[in-house]
Amino acid sequence: MGMSTAILQQQLAALVARSCQEISTARLWKLVSQAYQEPHRHYHNLDHIRFMLAGWEAHGPRDDAVAWAIWFHDVVYDPRATENEAASAACFRRELGPFLERTMAADVERLIIATVPSAPPPTHPDEQLISDLDLSILASTPEIYDAYARAVRQEYAFVSEPDFARGRVAVMSGFLDRERIYLTKAFRHHEKRARENVAREIAAWKGRG
Questions:
Q1: Per residue in 158-192, pLDDT tens?
Q2: What is the tally of structural domains in the chain?
Q3: Which of 46, 55, 130, 207 minimizes the number of CB atoms within 10 Å of its CB?
Q4: Sign of the torsion angle spanned by Cα atoms 85, 18, 41, 190
Q5: End of a domain among 84, 118, 152?
Q6: In a domain, 126, yes or no
Q7: Contacts 24+ apart (CB under 8 A), 109-117
């Protein structure tokens, strides 16, 4: 998906240079790259970060708080846990909080928490943007969407097929129940394809019952 690992490292280095030069880019890259390459991650990995950063570059605005939130929003990910975003925000606070301007650090934590899947649709523009970026995979081509859905299933391999099907249908139906999946103008034209993909996945799971 998109940019190479070398370019990804360069993007992180540029972000560090713009906002917290006291941090070692090498140490930070080691932290995030190791986290996103944990063996249980099949979707919530570096490809997910690449995908979101590409969307951020394309649709902006270029708010570095959003960029930091992209890098850290899934840095802690355990599919058995229920507070991954809070743990990711805590990791960000521990690693970068002392080095960033206070307002930016608070914004990044707020944006990470805005990616909680069960949270109400956000109303603040930057929260809407990161939400749309996080959900942009839903509007991919059917082939990419299906690969995403398979990867999520792999992350929940410890859950039985019937239980996963029930849970997945409930989660994805929640997106269809929203007035809009995408909340920013930049992503609104993707709404139709996202709904088609999600409805197709739901139908497939129901068809297996």
A1: 999 999 999 999 999 999 999 999 999 999 999 99
A2: 2
A3: 207
A4: positive
A5: 118
A6: no
A7: 111/65, 111/66, 111/69, 111/73, 112/69, 112/72, 112/73, 112/85, 112/88, 113/85, 113/86, 113/89, 114/69, 115/69, 115/73, 115/74, 115/85, 116/85, 117/171
Residue 3 backbone dihedrals phi, psi, to 5 degrees: -65, 150
State whether 109 and 140 are in the same domain.
Answer: no
Q: How far apart are CA 40 and CA 140, in angstroms?
A: 23
Residue 2 has pLDDT above 80, yes or no: no
Are 71 and 46 in a shared domain?
A: yes
Establish if 87 belongs to a structural domain.
yes
Judged by phi (left if over 0) then psi (alpha if -120 to 50, else beta), residue 44 lies in beta
Which domain, by its residues, includes 176? Answer: 135-209
Do 108 and 7 share a structural domain? Answer: yes
Q: Are 63 and 133 in contact (CB under 8 A)?
A: no
Close Cβ partners of 6 (under 8 Å, ≥ 6 residues apart): none
Specify the pLDDT at position 4: 87
Does 1 score more than 60 pLDDT? no
Q: pTM here? A: 0.95
Same domain, 107 and 140: no
Q: How confident is the model at residue 91, as a pLDDT?
A: 98
Q: Which amino acid is at 104?
A: M
